[in-house]
């Protein structure tokens, strides 16, 4: 799929990692940081542009992670919740010269995210015509998730403390899912991280 992409990726990386006690964006994983791994997976996919939303620890993260190939958006309201970061990311897409048809929203703490997973979302979007393509793991529909541009206005008006799952649930009959069993693994606590390292 070497075509000009009109599907963007937004990586949500604005949280303070309070349960971890240190910025999980910077945790070492497979020779780089968790955030760098996510960024490189997004860049290697068919999606362009890639937007990274930072908030807490933004200066520390930008000094340690190579974000030269992506657009960085800072969310000063990061403490209000994930909805505020989704809003910042979606609004940033309005400044691109070409129309963005859809967006893949993902997070920085799913270590098994890959370009193939993102590309699978895009392929399913084109083949099914569904407005939402979500990943399925442990009977959950969640991120990474692709939303068609017709849902951008609802993403922008999400409540601060609400994530994208609210819209997935609202339109569940219009959702197509792809399997991502390892998507259930995310890194919220030091124990999560230790389990991940021990499984390598």
UniProtKB/TrEMBL annotation:
GO molecular-function terms, A-Z: nucleotidyltransferase activity
Top-level lineage group: Bacteria
Signal peptide coordinates: none
InterPro entries given in the database record: MobA-like_NTP_Trfase, Nucleotide-diphossugar_trans
Domain MobA-like NTP transferase per the UniProt entry, residue ranges: 10-172
Protein name as catalogued: 4-diphosphocytidyl-2C-methyl-D-erythritol synthase
Lineage: Bacteria, Bacillati, Cyanobacteriota, Cyanophyceae, Nostocales
